[in-house]
Target: Phosphoglycerate dehydrogenase-like enzyme
Amino acid sequence: MIEIAVLDDYQGAALDSADWSAVRARAGVTVFRDHVDDPAALVQRLAGFDAVCVMRERTPLPAAVLERLPRLRFIASTGTRNASLDLAAARARGIIVSATRSAANGAPELTWALIHAAARHIPAEAASLRAGGWQVGVGADLAGSTLAIMGLGAIGSRVAAVGRAFGMTVIAWSQNLTAEAAAAAGAVLVDKATLLREADWLTIHLVLSERSRGIVGAGDLALMKPSAWLINTSRGPLVDEAALVDALERRAIAGAALDVFDREPLPPAHPFRRLANVLATPHVGFVTRRTYALFYGETVENLLAWLDGAPIRVM
Model:
């Protein structure tokens, strides 16, 4: 009997997001709703499975884990890339790794949800009303403020379009961005220092790589206005976490709105859980019904193709 594990189904949504009946008729499917962080415990959990379904980068599968799973033959990943999988190690062991398409709307939509929530103090105002109170703050205006975008690709360009609609000045920078590409997205190319100094809202939309890791560090945060907010819905390690915590504790910047972190799930005692000037969500940028239907629907297709020995959309 083929055994398939579905990992990190936090909401219990995997089996409801697609029709798994054809897979379950041919294989055992075990869904795990919790997260296992310890590699040894993860190996123990996965030892009896032929295939593993991973949701984005929630559970890393490095070479040190893969080499201890001799039964594993197939990894069904979601999205078009997964930096937490050692693809070379998987291929060397004859493990097939499949991919799915990805919806592009989730991250930019959450970016704006966080910006609005921070600008208008929505968590505090809602909590006050629920507790029997009334207004507790004065909101910031987006119109006339400066939206600074670090990374103007598919997601950053969508964020820029909304910023223009709100009457914001939109500036952008990334290592390979040209003035022509910025203008095409409705933004003005500036250098990195100018981006940081002029930002009222600095939002990051870069792919994590060795070149981009820590691209916002202590020196960069020091250039920002005390009234500025940093928004990160891309990847936690793009920002030096220790430097950000320090800047927030000293109120060197007004606040941070974060959906991604160096370690996920975020440890219970992490400063981001207690700092009053942090608005944090648990990496839900891509967690939408449409995205889950696409991810799990194509995961089912990939599993059936693997079971049939048919061509697969590989990563």
Remarks:
- The chain has two domains: 2-103+288-308, 106-280.
